[in-house]
Specification:
This protein has about 180 residues and is mainly α. The chain has 8 helices and no strands.
Length: about 180
């Protein structure tokens, strides 16, 4: 069995699982959890009395993940599952283009990995949220499992790169010193 066939088979099983779950739950996971995730992250950082400087690497990691995904979208086009497999998407699909890789997964994992560098104690919560956002995108029929895995890999890479010591030192010397 090829990787593509395995991806399609696993994704189809998850699409059908998503059809058996309450629509509201799937819509929340696929579309709204990422916003709750960000709001909770801000609240926890505020409670820790984190400085604005703490937010910049999180924002930079998310922007980097999104930029990498934008380049990948130009290089690789993959039709969305609701087009390719004729499954019913549970969320609004009017604005969706290429499926590979998932922007939601990339940004969610970038934020979660970035948070690991700020607060290891609560990081598990955001890693779990990133997983649930990614799963929600597959359950909703707007991504294949491989799309969210690739998006997660991009997000992890971006989150680590932004926090990598040489880059961080340059970033701090160049931009953070201006704050």
């Amino acid at each position: 069995m090829t990787i593509s066939a395995l991806d399609t088979q696993a994704s189809a099983a998850l699409f059908h699982a998503g059809e058996r779950l309450p629509d509201g739950l799937v819509v929340f996971l696929a579309s709204y959890l990422i916003w709750a995730f960000g709001a909770l992250m801000l609240v926890l950082l505020w409670k820790k009395r984190a400085r604005a400087r703490s937010l910049l690497p999180l924002i930079a990691g998310s922007a980097l993940a999104y930029a990498i995904n934008a380049a990948l979208h130009l290089a690789v086009f993959r039709a969305r599952p609701f087009v390719a497999l004729e499954v019913s998407a549970i969320i609004n699909t009017a604005h969706l283009a290429s499926s590979f890789p998932s922007d939601h997964a990339a940004v969610a994992f970038s934020l979660a990995v970035g948070y690991v560098f700020l607060d290891k104690k609560n990081a598990w919560l955001f890693l779990a949220f990133a997983f649930m956002v990614s799963l929600g995108r597959v359950l909703a029929g707007v991504h294949f499992a491989g799309d969210v895995l690739a998006g997660a890999a991009v997000g992890v890479l971006a989150g680590v790169l932004v926090h990598h010591r040489p880059w961080r030192s340059w970033f701090a010397a160049t931009w953070l010193s201006r704050l």
